[in-house]
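Input chain follows. Return C-alpha cells only.
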Amino acid sequence: MTRSALLVLADGRFPAGGHAHSGGAEAAVKAGRIRDAAGLEAFCLGRLHTTGLTAAGLAAAAALGHDLYELDAAADARTPSPALRAASRRLGRQLMRAARATWPGPGLDALAAAFPRGAHQPVVLGATARAAGLGPEDAAHCAAYETVGGPATATVRLLGLDPYQATAVLARLAPVMDEVAARATAAAREGVDALPAASAPLLDITAEQHAAWPVRLFAS
C-alpha cells in the first residue's frame, strides 16, 4: 500500500468527472439554503452524516472485496432519486475510465464489463482503491471528502464565495470526515447487510427539481 496513491485518487485534478457535479449545492444555492460560508458548512455537515456516510460505507465494502454486484444493488436501493441514480452511474463510468488508465488490472476490467453503463460511483471508488493497493479506510476517507469537496468547489463558482473561506469550511469538517470514515469502515467489515443507509430526502427532492431545469451550471 502507498499513501501516494491515496493522494492521487483524492486529488481534485484526478479526471473522474466530479467537477461537473455540485452535490446538490446548485439547487441549495437557488433555494437560499446556502448564502455564505456558514450555510455551506451546515449543508456539508448534513451531507456527511447522510449520503456521505452511505457512500463511504459502500466504498469501504468494495475496497474490502465484497461482492460488487451486491454492492451495486445496495447502492441502487439507497438512492431513491432517479436523477441521483443516473448521476452516480455517470460518475462511476467516468471514474472507471480514469481508474483503468491509472491502475489497470483484471478487477477493474471485470467491473467495467459487468456494468457497461456504469456501476455506482462509490462502488467504483472502492474497487479503484483496491486496485491501487489502498485499504477500506482510505476508500471511506475519499468518499467522505468527495461528499463535501464537490459542494465547496461548486459554491465558490455559484456564489463567488471566497475560496479561502470554502477551504476553511473543509478544514473545520475534517474531524467529522474522520468520524464518518471510521463508522463506515466498521460497518463494511460487518458485511453488506450492515452498511449504512442514511438518507437525505430534501437532497432527493431537489435533485429531481434540478434535473428538470432548462438551464443549469452543473449536471447535478
